[in-house]
Design goal:
It is a single chain. The chain has 284 residues and is mainly alpha-helical. Helices cover 77% and strands 0% of the residues. The longest helix is centred in the middle third of the chain and has 29 residues. The N and C termini lie far apart (74 Å).
Amino acid sequence: MLLMASLLGACMPRQLLVNSAADALTAQGQAAEEDLGLAREASAFYLKLSESLLRQSPGHLPLAESVASGFTQYAYAFVGFEAERLVSTDAKAAHLLNQRAQRMYWRAHRHAMAALNQTSPGFSAALAQPQASRWPVLRPDQVGVAYWAAASWGAYIALSKDDPDAVADLPLVGRLAELAWRTSPEHGQGALASLMGNIEAARPGGSAVKAAAFFDQAIAVSGGQNAGPFVAKAEAIAQAAGDRPAFEVLLQQALTVSAKHADLSSQIMRQRAQWLLDNADDLF
């Protein structure tokens, strides 16, 4: 018994140290960074270190959210975006980059779902139940992780359109996002409502009117200060409808908003909005 007590006593300070480091890394991951190049260079080390700590403390929801968001944003801004820019000139290189982005999206999703299952045992199994009454209940402190779990999952599926098994999971993505949205519809300054809009627009038989309403809700929730919903609405609604004037107005709004904020998400959206404007002739 004395031996067991000493072993437990040795473990407790180590776990406290891991949790303290996780808290510090989470705070660092939320720091503003306006230089995309510097953010890209620093991300690899930060993500590997954070991932290593998360494996030792899988139920640390803030760190899980930071890791999932980090991998998802890295894949979106630096890997998938580069593939889009290369596809017309080097299809093979673009394909390889998309495969890498796909792996990173799945990595983000895996970490986020592991945290949800750690903090709510059986979460994934409950999510897959056909009866709504048996779906999991999402706590407010799980919403951020659920958001990134759904966002990374949806992005993974978007790059897996030739895989029927992956595409078949799209309803589960919508279900997970809706659980988060019902719990905290204003999460992420409208980011969650915007995700709902993207899912509705991508869903077979989805309603463009309903999707647009989600995007408008996202813009209203942020007070028009989040560039993401403007870009998302431009691509999912205006571009899909062939409405170039609306497309350009929305992207100009995104540029104006993103210029006022130094956080990484705003700079990612600014970069994408400008690229979409520069390539509008090819998109319409």
